[in-house]
Amino acid sequence: MPTFDHNDLLLPPEPGQRALARELYALAAEQPIISPHGHVDPALLAEDLPFPDPAQLLIVPDHYLTRMLLSQGVPPADLGVPTSDGSPVETDGRVIWRRFAAHWHLFRGTPSRLWLEQTFRTVFGVHTRFGPATADEIYDEVAARLAEADFRPRALFERFGIEVLATTESPLDDLGRHAKLAADGWGGPGGRVVTTFRPDDVVDMEFEGWSKNVDRLGELAGEDTGTYTGYLAALRARRAAFIAAGATSSDHGHPTARTLDLAPAEAERLYDRGRRGEADAADAEAFRAHMLVEFARMSLDDGLVMQLHPGAVRNHNRWLYDRHGRDVGGDIPQATEYVHALAPLLERYGNDSRLRVVLYTLDEDTFTRELAPLAGGYAALLLGAPWWFLDSPEVLRRFRETVTESAGFYNTTGFVDDTRAFCSIPVRHDVARRVDAGFLARLVAEHRLPMDEAAETIVDLAYRLPKRVFNFGGHQQ
Fold first, then answer.
1. How does pLDDT run across 273-332, given as a tens digit for each residue?
2. Residue 200 backbone dihedrals phi, psi, to 5 degrees
3. Is the pTM of this model over 0.85?
4. How far apart are CA 232 and CA 227, in angstroms?
5. Residue 217: which H helix or E strand, with range?
6. Dihedral angle, C-alpha 291, 293, 294, 297, nearest 10 °
């Protein structure tokens, strides 16, 4: 079967713009990777053990892949996805690989196909086209690479050119893996692998086991979370522990972007209702909304950049959740409103340049109508890159087209890969850099931007902006 290799991948087809894009992409391609938001397991780098077989590495944990096959009637258990009750799943890596390859046609035109093909090519040096007829050949090639010392996680980290990688942990995590990384010279403040404070499981009253989680929060922090005051003190203590482990940001994955600035007494009443098990859905939403304002207040004190990732209906596929648990492809985007939802937070802190709130969306329509004008009008707001269901080349292009006119380039924050798939990190950043090269090349070709400014901008987007925004170069600037 013929090989598949295009150096001009995703660059403009028009020859003049393509030549400009090649020059710009070459500048971006040589920049180190800043990965400020993702879900790589820190144990991967702390332990630095060899990767498992190719299927366990590339297919089983990737819900972009397994959910597509589920949509065509292939249950996740047949692809090795663990079950909540421990019931049997397929464990033979080659069987999983062949089954996946038999359905490869489902991914035509998708970013998942693009990422996987580029991972084969750029990470593993496999140039043969993937498909049912070549599945075993490619499996053997990848397996052979994984047996080499140069394909251990830390060696790949070096080869990928990653300067900083942020993982994401709950306040209930003891941060032991990050302590190991710090002891090895890889973690801690200013380290190469840092953590991110993600408090959803102790903030969202609708999160399974919320009250028990809050009890555990108090134990870890040495505070009495039986009271609202003690609860806030416990959150501050855990934030301090995360900062000591290298964290520069917090992350908040709420269903909506709603914020509320409640009086302390009202917030305390909401908290007490939740602890008694009497809170309803409206109470839970109000408490989440209020806590976003509280977290903004904490960020002004401790300097954590605040990321807000709203808009996902979690576990929409209840069968999938009941069978396999969270984060296996059962979530669905929903429409998300920002202008009125964020008004209480912005009224209080939106013009304070000491605060950085990075906004993301799963609702693409909001980029032009709401998010770009908001980011272009408030000192505290910045726009995060398209993520999750929107991290395709098409939306990355539309993002630049729709937000630049109102927010410019410098109210955005650079690319985030948002991935658990470690080997896809360089590929995803490369895709974003190619798309940005194409967009900037068009501005140059249309005589809207000089080439020297486009060259400076693409390096900013690829490297300098995310490093500065997420404080990976030291103190907030």
1. 999 999 999 999 999 999 999 999 999 999 999 999 999 999 999 999 999 999 999 999
2. -55, -40
3. yes
4. 9
5. helix 210-221
6. 160
